[in-house]
Specification:
alpha/beta, D-Maltodextrin-Binding Protein, domain 2, 11 strands, 6-stranded mixed β-sheet, 5-stranded mixed β-sheet, 345 residues
């Protein structure tokens, strides 16, 4: 009997150990490099807070592999998504110090680095995929943005995306009046705070990791985010309605510590920056496809997508005009007007 009990106990311990091992399985296992990076002469630590299933995040691994190939194994892009290096505010501090050399910063957080980077979050300015491409490929609009963080010791190498913003809500929002009854979670960013104040909406500034519980408990009843992120991160399981505002493109801004970059051999600088440009361009095209695919998938799962009327959109634009004036003074009125003119915003 003792032997039987011992065998059962050992079996239970073994099963429990297997379950714990399964729970601790590396969520990034599928993205591990197919090469040994230990022989690299130089390492570029690149941080991001999100999941690489999002095309604008997964680009970091494509950059890693192509840089390794083109540099002949001399430069290793050590990519750390899923907040491995900490939250965005912490990583920005590390980036300025050079403890981290690169960062795919959310555009909402990037506005904390430099006011001029906030231009891409302003309502109805860079609000469509086509306008984003035009913004990136027009020197008059892109160059001031790319150099907008030089005083902080950083350069903007490029941008990738995660789709157009709207409202994921627990109850349908079909009008601006409906939206007044929602408590929206917004990002920890000054531009977003100013927008929601101008719209006279109820909002709560909340770190992203706190969102799931807040949604489940009803602390918040809406999210200011994109269909790609809401579907991939399972927010649509609770917030089953999405109002398509399309007021801004969600972006990841690729920031590099300039002091570190300048110390890199010139040929490796050229390889790194060229690959970032090529892969970011490819990623933006993939993001368009991913947006369509995730919207279609969400609809199949019962999420209702709602478009506001032209009058309601006009009302939101009119109410947000003071924000554009306010941020125009920070960004530079001439630059803001130039971007609006070039993009037809």
């Amino acid at each position: 009997m003792k032997k039987i009990l011992l065998a059962v106990l050992l079996l239970m311990i073994g099963l429990a150990g297997s379950a714990m091992a399964e729970e601790k399985k590396n969520p990034l296992e599928a993205w591990q490099p197919k090469f040994d990076p230990r022989g690299a002469e130089y390492t570029y630590i690149l941080s991001n807070v999100s999941h690489p299933a999002i095309e604008g995040v997964g680009v970091g691994y494509r950059i890693r592999d192509k840089v390794w190939e083109k540099s002949g194994g001399r430069l290793y892009v050590d990519y750390r998504p899923l907040s491995q290096m900490g939250g965005e505010k912490d990583v920005i501090s590390k980036l300025k110090l050079g403890a981290v050399q690169g960062m795919l910063s959310s555009s909402v957080a990037a506005a904390n680095v430099s006011d001029i980077l906030g231009i891409v979050n302003l309502p109805y300015i860079v609000d469509t995929f086509d306008k984003l491409d035009a913004f990136r490929h027009t020197p008059e609009t892109w160059d001031p943005f790319a150099n907008g963080a030089i005083q902080q010791g950083l350069i903007v190498a490029d941008v990738t995306g995660y789709g157009p913003y709207g409202w994921a809500t627990t109850t349908p929002v079909r009008t601006v009046t409906d939206a007044k009854g929602v408590n929206f979670r917004i990002a920890e960013a000054p531009v977003n705070t100013d927008i929601y104040k101008s719209w006279a909406m109820k909002f709560t500034v909340m770190p992203w990791p706190d969102v799931p519980q807040a949604l489940q408990t009803g602390v918040i009843t809406g999210l200011d985010h994109t269909p790609i992120v809401c579907n991939i991160t399972k927010k649509f399981t609770i917030a089953k309605n999405f109002t398509e505002l399309n007021y801004a493109q969600g972006l990841f801004v690729h920031l590099i510590n300039k002091r570190w970059l300048d110390k890199l051999p010139q040929d490796l600088q050229d390889i790194l920056l060229t690959v970032i440009t090529e892969e970011s361009e490819n990623s933006r095209a993939l993001t368009r496809q991913q947006h369509d695919a995730q919207v279609a998938k969400a609809k199949e799962d019962g999420v209702e997508f709602i478009s506001l009327s032209a009058d309601d959109i006009k009302q939101l634009k009119t109410m947000a005009e003071p924000v554009l004036n306010q941020w125009g003074k920070k960004i530079g009125p001439e630059y803001l007007e130039q971007v609006r003119a070039k993009l037809g915003s």
